Amino acid sequence: MQRDHWKNITDALPDGLMVLDAEGVIVAVNPAFRRITGFSEREPLGRPCSVLACSACPAPGQGGGCVLAGGAAGETISCRMSHKSGRTLRLLKRASLLTAADGSILGAVETLLEASDLEATPPPRAYDERMRLVGRSPAMAALLDSLEGLAKGAAPILIQGESGAGKELVASLLHRLGPRSGEKLIKLSCASLQPQDLAGGPWQRAHGPEADIILDEISDLPPASQKRLAEYLGQRQPPELKVLALSNQDLGLLVGRGRFDQDLWRRLRPVTLNVPPLRERREDLPPLLERLLADLCQRRGRPAARLGREALRLIQAHAWPGNVRELINALEYALMLAPQGEIQAAHLPPALNGAAYPLAKQAAEGDDRQRLLQALRTAGGNQSEAARILGVSRVTVWKRMQKYGIDVSQL
Fold this sequence. Notes:
Layout: H1 3-12, E1 16-21, E2 26-29, H2 31-37, E3 76-82, E4 88-99, E5 105-114, H3 138-152, E6 157-160, H4 167-177, E7 185-189, H5 195-198, H6 202-207, E8 211-216, H7 223-235, E9 241-247, H8 251-256, H9 262-268, E10 272-274, H10 285-300, E11 306-307, H11 309-317, H12 323-337, E12 342-343, H13 350-353, H14 359-365, H15 368-378, H16 383-390, H17 394-404
Parallel strand pairs: 6-9, 6-10, 7-8, 8-9, 11-12
Antiparallel strand pairs: 1-2, 1-5, 3-4, 4-5
């Protein structure tokens, strides 16, 4: 094959690719490498690979992760490297030696995969574990960079974000990065927790003295239970217990309206993580689509799928009120209809391919009531279908209909 053909192939690779000479000097990189590291096309060329400050090989020819030093050939290893901006990247890399016919070393080739989510997550069993925290946006980069340090502490962590944005995945990663990663992660629904359930910690009685616990939708915690939990956290702050509180509402606003206990909010708010909605990090759509499609195809045991131009345009124009969860549902729907190969616009859910709510109108009218009304209209009044469109449960749709006084017979 001609040299240009090889360049076209390497440029099309989704993983970063770096070619080194025998001295560890970078001689070629592909676009994915530049996207991951922030370097321009020619900046890294002629420089030693130590410019990346890889944690597995501190200098060319040194460290157990350096293929030029005889280690890690053909193995996938987890490491940290430096982005051009100075922030730390969590990566998976795989390296192979390039040798001449006489066996002498000519150099090496390495592939890099963004893996801030993968190194803390075991092989998935259910698809909700596949909903990756992927993104290059400043908001996602800041969130990912903060997880490892926060996971080591004992302070409660409040994780706020819209439904479907990935709050539970953030909590799961905090658990896996923390000192109790070998223990069970316990999830409790706050709507059903009574004060007596919090006395002494039911999770401790059931699962031993040490635990990480997710309190799902803490804004639904009954008032008496809010006070009991505030007392518990204030009196003990036990190092053996990590409380990860999730909320799809701004607790500060609820406190101002008298709908949430101020003392409990004061205990939770010092460490608050905000998971941005998908519509505010639209630059994350390309890598997110790539990862989700790969995961879905692997789970279904089918060849890799790709998005046609019109399908991609519709996905990029959609407001995604249900966030990543809605995106996953849309891709699952499309893969059920699409033949092997390319996903066309006709394979996407009706909300995208024929009745998509325009992004500009969504931004102008974009409160919860308008999104719910649009989903119900698109679904023909079917609450289960509206829940699927929004990426929430049917019960949540019913509760919001009651809250906003929506009658499907009048749509």
